Amino acid sequence: QVQLVESGGGLVQAGGSLTLSCVVSGRTFSRADMRWFRQAPGKEREFVAINRWSGGSTDYADSVKGRFTISRDNAKNTVYLQMSNLKPEDTAIYYCNALYTITTYWGQGTQVTVSS
């Protein structure tokens, strides 16, 4: 089965940095668009960033633009989310998503908590 496992979450002070990782097993993601989403308590799951397989183009939610960077290493089937200047409103469970043409897979999420 295909598994996505996120790691790197934790507790950080406002203004700090964290890097999240997502490792995909069971299927190569070289032709998958890789995305990060997040969900805060009582909130809808929201898009954070995407790294497309075609050309490696990226897009970000306005709320994280300039602070977060998504990247991928296809040889390691791993996608990263570098987060800087973290704010309390960034507190959420962060989910990794692999989007293929007709199928998609989700990880279980990793908790990021930003204290003020």
What does this structure look like?
With 116 residues, the protein is mainly beta. 0% of the residues lie in helices and 53% in strands. The chain has strands spanning 3-7, 10-13, 18-25, 33-39, 46-51, 58-60, 68-73, 78-83, 92-99, 104-106, 110-115. Strand 5 and strand 6 (58-60) form a beta hairpin.
Provide a quick synopsis of the model.
The chain is mainly beta. The chain is 0% helix and 53% strand.
List the helices and strands and how they pair.
Layout: E1 3-7, E2 10-13, E3 18-25, E4 33-39, E5 46-51, E6 58-60, E7 68-73, E8 78-83, E9 92-99, E10 104-106, E11 110-115
Parallel strand pairs: 2-11
Antiparallel strand pairs: 1-3, 3-8, 4-5, 4-9, 5-6, 7-8, 9-10, 9-11
Q: Tell me the distance between the termini.
A: 40 Å
The stretches of 5 or more residues where confidence is low (pLDDT under 50) are none
Give the overall pLDDT as a whole number.
95
Q: Please tell me what the overall shape is.
A: globular
- Put simply, the count of helices is 0
